[in-house]
Amino acid sequence: MNPILVVGSVALDTVKTSAGFIEDGLGGSATYFSLAARYFAPILLVGVVGEDFPREHKALLRDRGIDCSGLETAAGETFRWSGKYGKDANVAKTLATHLNVFKDFRPKLDEAHRSAPVVFLANIDPELQSEVLSQMKEPALVACDTMNFWIDSKPAALKELLSKVDIFFCNEEEAEKLAKRPNPLQAAEVIASWGPSVVVVKKGEHGALMKIGSRIYIFPPYPMAEIKDPTGAGDTFAGGFLGYLASCGVYDDVGHLKRAMAYGTTMASFNVEDFSTRNIEDLDRDRIDERFHDFLDRMSVPRAEDLLKSRRPVAA
Amino acid sequence: MNPILVVGSVALDTVKTSAGFIEDGLGGSATYFSLAARYFAPILLVGVVGEDFPREHKALLRDRGIDCSGLETAAGETFRWSGKYGKDANVAKTLATHLNVFKDFRPKLDEAHRSAPVVFLANIDPELQSEVLSQMKEPALVACDTMNFWIDSKPAALKELLSKVDIFFCNEEEAEKLAKRPNPLQAAEVIASWGPSVVVVKKGEHGALMKIGSRIYIFPPYPMAEIKDPTGAGDTFAGGFLGYLASCGVYDDVGHLKRAMAYGTTMASFNVEDFSTRNIEDLDRDRIDERFHDFLDRMSVPRAEDLLKSRRPVAA
Fold this sequence. Notes:
Chain A is of the alpha/beta class and about 325 residues long. Chain A is about 35% helix and about 25% strand. In chain A, the strands form 2 sheets. In chain A, strands 5-4-1-8-9-10-11-12-13 form a 9-stranded mixed β-sheet, with helices on both faces. In chain A, strands 3-2-6-7 form a 4-stranded mixed β-sheet.
């Protein structure tokens, strides 16, 4: 088993969408990532919460087998984010961000953390992400995420970080802003030139693309008639993606990376079906694989020589 | 060989996009459809042009093997459309529509037309589409397209037509407007309930989906770093789609329909690379199939048991 170290936020989110409202729900990039990735690989979570962090949230993470020895409790209040989504579920409007204990977060890695073969540097200050990375022994795979705030405020630190990571996850808007390019294909090309051998650009309800070397791979979204709460979809995607790769122990093969994209899409599709982490707390690998294969069936195109074998009449 | 009858507009288009401008370029739904479909199957084109229609345009269609015996020349001017596209290449702003000879178009079908096994009723008045269909003998496959104008002005005639077609092509905006539903999945469900066993919803640069029975299939777009002129992309898509099905002579199998979606995407991707019909006039089946297979490679996800066979290192 190849454990994944994730360093990021554990938060309390207040979210309003067209489907409803939640106050102080369990959230944070490391939380979503861990809950999604734990179906595939052992997870070591490093983060910080305040003294007000509900006991049951911490219990939930531990009960799901997530190693929370690196989840520090500091004096003060937990990181809080509140936001709302309009008709376009791809765009969150941030109403308030209270960093609280997260402001002074200095990730402390112990021996087990430093030895993890896979590390996900979730969305935190890129200088901190680099600092965490420098503590790692010899990870086989380094991935990171970021957000608009860091693209605006610390672009140099972010570029420096990108020169040291294998996989960069971002959404379309972030990619275009970071690369100063008008579309995700051109943006991914610029970003790849800075270091990451794999650039994943998520387009929300429009699917995702993955650039490996000079080649672009393209993925449709899982078809959803309704999205209740898109919060955490990106980190859940990364969790399914890296979890699957860690479960295989293969980090440099296009075929595995394509399947990782499909697992990322699958996990994100579960996540957006309910508020907070509700819908990814109690899945199991059978349900995940059922939707994964359903997704592949919906997007797969048979080879000409397989057409007769796969015959499925329209009237079915 | 299974010929395809297409009835629709042959026009002169004046188009402005961020990549340039063209005046009185060859256009029209039946034109784009025919030029795309003719790589796959014999095409019988029924339409009307005015006396001003350039001789070289008609020669171009004939030289490409398109049967133009049903392309009437009427007294008056050719149908003209002019429009422009802004930053969002999915949305055309119509600047002017001059129906001219198209206003009195009453398609006349001869024996060969009436016997065609496949018919594409391109975007014209739904009452005319129904009238054409009533002249057909026993087509194995009936497909149609429409546009916002008819959805607004003749919804009842359009619904009546849909009860008689097998495949309906529309774009996302049209589907939502026609079905009065807020997203393409729900819209496709409503439209399918009116008759078509296959509903294809095109989402422009975001790909497409296909509803067959109760099941939704999903397709990413072919990755394009630049779109020069999206005019005709929908009809080119339908041309690749129906052309491929006609070439197989199989109209009711999910696998064939999935490949048809990929051929539609492929043909549309060629079309948007240049103004008017320029980039689909002189392709050949090898170039088409090369891009078709490239598209499939970019979107295909290997099965777990094929991972080792398909090994492609990232560093390639």
